[in-house]
């Protein structure tokens, strides 16, 4: 017998025998529920045998049989009522555990978020995709009504979503496209590094979403709850169903602030900041300006993260300000990186190390931030040595810039679209889903081994547009993505190391070396970042004008 914990108060297993009850009691369970009808299998003990053994051990036993494959709404309601009243924790069983988990899932609908229910059941080894619509419908049987049908549905209205929709319309203006996103605001996130350095104002990086969406798309202002790819359906919160011929998934990623103990309680105060949030980037600049002496820490979590260079960009620009202000000798700078290298593409490391030495920054590799106490100005890191042993390190600070741990959004991680790590599973060249042939993905949420940057999405959008239209019969050519990503490493105010690379760290410069040599700091690269790329983003990328982004195609 294997007990699988679904949550802290509920566990399940396949069919048990009376002798298993001692182990169940020893595990701390106080109630046993049988969800399998007597006589369903020849190897199955009757419930009264289970009940007799349970009572002898002081456990409550309940018989709530459900026929296999026929969990009704009434069954789920009854199960939820009995579960609520039963002494906790509760153990349930059936032939495989699936009926018990299904009953629990339907009973928790409306009490817990859908993604939380699916995460708990998936972690326990059970796939609830067959009842996901019922869970989304407050645990009740849902009809087959469709609330909208489109040629193409795009999930996410970030840079990737808007760019791919615009690229599609630039090629086929008559497409019926819907974009699903609950947000009201669209952000130019690459600008937040410069907001944190006092170069941009926060307002320079924001527009209303309605003002940047392509005019000919349908905006569905809602959150996605789940996917039913076998039926070509996206389920929205509230159990509305949107049907598609082709689906493009690009909702970005999730900043998991809660993964660092104490961080959420102190963000934006006590010297704790992050350029990864629009409202906190101005606080970064305030802290940098105000710090005259003390300790400044900068952190980077385990990969993958959005723009892997951003954590050290914050360090370089802050240090440059202190250097120019004559304060550098009074400030102790340290960069705590959960990884083992400064930057993943070694060609750019020498130029970066010159600045690390210039700013006298202490590099701490294999140090992962795990906790912060803002009022006490203390941070804790797990340091891992070459043998994999971990020790907890404590460090004080006057200011700390935190890059949060990151993962795919909850509704993606529990979906049939995700790989084992939770990212949308695509072919890295075509960005087509490996299992569902009418689904594509781009941007931060998919699992191709490229840098998660806006520059990458700018290259991916035309590839996906090309391939969707080829699949629809509009074209025979297939676009290939080479893994391009760009990271303008702002090593000082006025100079940038322009890292441009593709799969395997292959250098993919956009400009000839005599113009911009990406291995060396460049004033022209700074001009590109500060003056040229923002209008390219707003006026070209989001409008389907593919400047330096035409896809490579094969027939």
Automatic annotation (TrEMBL):
<dbReference type="InterPro" id="IPR023753">
    <property type="entry name" value="FAD/NAD-binding_dom"/>
</dbReference>
<keyword id="KW-0560">Oxidoreductase</keyword>
<feature type="domain" description="FAD/NAD(P)-binding">
    <location>
        <begin position="150"/>
        <end position="267"/>
    </location>
</feature>
<dbReference type="InterPro" id="IPR036188">
    <property type="entry name" value="FAD/NAD-bd_sf"/>
</dbReference>
<dbReference type="Pfam" id="PF04273">
    <property type="entry name" value="BLH_phosphatase"/>
</dbReference>
<dbReference type="InterPro" id="IPR015904">
    <property type="entry name" value="Sulphide_quinone_reductase"/>
</dbReference>
<keyword id="KW-0274">FAD</keyword>
<protein>
    <submittedName>
        <fullName>TIGR01244 family phosphatase</fullName>
    </submittedName>
</protein>
<feature type="domain" description="Beta-lactamase hydrolase-like protein phosphatase-like">
    <location>
        <begin position="3"/>
        <end position="110"/>
    </location>
</feature>
<dbReference type="GO" id="GO:0070224">
    <property type="term" value="F:sulfide:quinone oxidoreductase activity"/>
</dbReference>
<keyword id="KW-0285">Flavoprotein</keyword>
<dbReference type="GO" id="GO:0071949">
    <property type="term" value="F:FAD binding"/>
</dbReference>
<keyword id="KW-0874">Quinone</keyword>
<dbReference type="InterPro" id="IPR005939">
    <property type="entry name" value="BLH_phosphatase-like"/>
</dbReference>
<keyword id="KW-0809">Transit peptide</keyword>
<dbReference type="InterPro" id="IPR029021">
    <property type="entry name" value="Prot-tyrosine_phosphatase-like"/>
</dbReference>
<dbReference type="GO" id="GO:0070221">
    <property type="term" value="P:sulfide oxidation, using sulfide:quinone oxidoreductase"/>
</dbReference>
<dbReference type="Pfam" id="PF07992">
    <property type="entry name" value="Pyr_redox_2"/>
</dbReference>
<dbReference type="GO" id="GO:0048038">
    <property type="term" value="F:quinone binding"/>
</dbReference>
<dbReference type="GO" id="GO:0016787">
    <property type="term" value="F:hydrolase activity"/>
</dbReference>
């Amino acid at each position: 017998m294997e007990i699988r914990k679904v949550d802290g108060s509920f566990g399940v297993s396949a069919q048990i025998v009376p002798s298993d009850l001692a182990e169940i009691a020893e595990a701390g369970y106080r109630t046993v529920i049988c969800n399998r009808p007597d006589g369903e299998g020849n190897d199955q003990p009757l419930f009264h045998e289970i009940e007799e053994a349970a009572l002898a051990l002081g456990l409550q036993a309940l018989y709530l049989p459900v026929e296999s494959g026929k969990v009704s709404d009434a069954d789920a309601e009854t199960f939820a009522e009995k579960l609520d009243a039963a002494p906790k924790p509760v153990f349930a069983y059936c032939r495989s555990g699936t009926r018990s988990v299904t009953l629990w899932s339907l009973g928790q609908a409306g009490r817990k978020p859908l993604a939380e229910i699916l995460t708990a059941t998936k972690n326990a080894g059970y796939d609830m995709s067959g009842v996901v619509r019922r869970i989304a419908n407050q645990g009740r049987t849902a009809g087959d009504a469709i609330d909208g049908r489109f040629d193409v549905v795009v999930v996410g209205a970030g840079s990737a979503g808007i760019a791919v929709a615009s690229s599609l319309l630039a090629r086929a203006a008559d497409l019926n496209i819907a974009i699903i996103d609950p947000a009201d605001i669209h952000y130019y996130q690459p600008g937040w590094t410069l907001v944190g350095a006092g170069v941009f104002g926060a307002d320079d990086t924001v527009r209303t979403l309605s003002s940047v969406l392509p005019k000919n798309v349908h905006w569905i202002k809602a959150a996605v709850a789940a996917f039913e790819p076998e039926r070509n359906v996206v389920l929205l919160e509230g159990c509305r169903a949107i049907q598609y011929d082709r689906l493009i998934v690009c909702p970005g990623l999730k900043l998991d602030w809660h993964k660092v103990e104490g961080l959420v309680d102190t963000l934006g105060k006590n010297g704790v900041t992050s350029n990864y949030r629009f409202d906190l980037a101005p606080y970064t600049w305030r802290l940098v300006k105000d710090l005259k002496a003390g300790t400044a820490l900068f952190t980077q979590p385990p990969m993958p993260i959005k723009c892997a260079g951003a954590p050290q960009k914050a360090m370089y620009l802050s240090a440059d300000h202190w250097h120019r202000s004559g304060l550098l000798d009074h400030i102790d700078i340290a960069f705590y990186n959960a990884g083992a290298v400064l930057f993943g593409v070694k060609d750019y490391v020498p130029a970066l190390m010159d600045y690390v030495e210039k700013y006298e920054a202490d590099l701490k590799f294999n140090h992962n931030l795990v906790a912060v106490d803002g009022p006490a100005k203390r941070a804790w890191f797990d340091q891992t040595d070459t043998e994999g042993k971990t020790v907890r390190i404590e460090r004080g600070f006057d200011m700390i810039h935190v890059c949060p741990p990151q993962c795919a959004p909850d509704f993606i991680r529990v979906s049939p679209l995700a790989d084992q790590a939770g990212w949308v599973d695509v072919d890295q060249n075509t960005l087509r889903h490996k299992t569902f042939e009418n689904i594509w993905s781009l941007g931060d949420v998919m699992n191709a081994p490229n840098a998660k940057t806006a520059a990458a999405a700018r290259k991916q959008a035309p590839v996906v547009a090309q391939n969707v239209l080829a699949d629809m019969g509009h074209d025979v050519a297939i676009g290939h993505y080479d893994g391009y990503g760009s990271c303008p490493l702002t090593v000082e105010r006025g100079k940038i190391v322009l890292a441009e690379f593709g799969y395997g760290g292959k250098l993919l410069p956009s400009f000839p070396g005599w113009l911009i040599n990406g291995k060396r700091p460049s004033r022209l690269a700074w001009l590109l970042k500060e003056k040229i790329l923002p209008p390219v983003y707003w006026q070209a990328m989001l409008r389907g004008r593919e400047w330096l982004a035409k896809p490579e195609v094969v027939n």
